[in-house]
TrEMBL record:
Signal found in the keyword field: yes
Organism name: Marinobacter salinexigens
Domain of life per record: Bacteria
InterPro entries: Solute-binding_3/MltF_N (IPR001638)
Domain Solute-binding protein family 3/N-terminal: residue ranges: 40-267
Annotated keywords: Signal
SUPFAM superfamilies from the UniProt entry: Periplasmic binding protein-like II
Name assigned to this protein: Transporter substrate-binding domain-containing protein
Pfam family, one: SBP_bac_3
Signal sequence interval, chain numbering: 1-27
Amino acid sequence: MTSLLNVLKKATPVLMLATAVSYGSFAAAATVEEIKDKGFISVATEDNYRPFEFIEDGKSTGYDNELKALVEKEAGISLKQEIMPWAGILPGVQSGKFDMALSAVMVTDQRRKAFDYTTPTAASQTFYATKAGSDIETGKDLIGKVVGAETGSAFLLELKAYDKKLKAEFGEGVAEIVEYHGYPEAYQDLALGRLDAVVNTDITLRTLMEERPGVFELGTAIGAPGYKAWAVKKGNDAVLKVVNDALLKVRESGEMYRLQEKWLGTRYENMPVDVN
């Protein structure tokens, strides 16, 4: 870099432009052809977010992982995967460490500023869950309560927005918002009575009810209906095209809906094609 700057300082404007363009080409994003020649795309996937992606018997499984296998087959390339906690996934994509977040990323206006999305993989809405027998029956009943959510999640942002809504309408909001690095710990604290409620997507909370019947209860929605999708850094058009072309074929064939029914308990056949 130092030698390049020295050349540019001594160069004519025309030479400076030509050199800068040439140097910049080394940093340019890979093309579709280059991606296919390389044979893989690097992706990051969450390690404990049922039913979308989680580890069971030492293996990655869940809706997104089975969808990944179909996309690999359709695209003819590998989605080279690293399993990690949610907190590191989007920062890793934004920094360029990973090409894509192959995870149940909630589509939000704020995230659209930094990321582009594939065709949606599921519909989603933010709900709260309580311990069975709780006196919380409506969103208004969260006033004065301790509520948990995952750090860096869209659900945390929606909880904070809902808290502001409560304060604007009723003059008071939740007593405390507690952030967690993962939902299993939040659910444990809810079961132990350290939390009054936890917010998450309705899909995941329904899975929680099935896995631990009689322990938790599903509350009501506190957020607007939305969608989940895989995400790439904004402007990474080639990676988006390779993955999205394959994902759309999987969707058009009906295989996406088959996996939705298997893992999510329903089929989201009326989702839009594009959520960007």
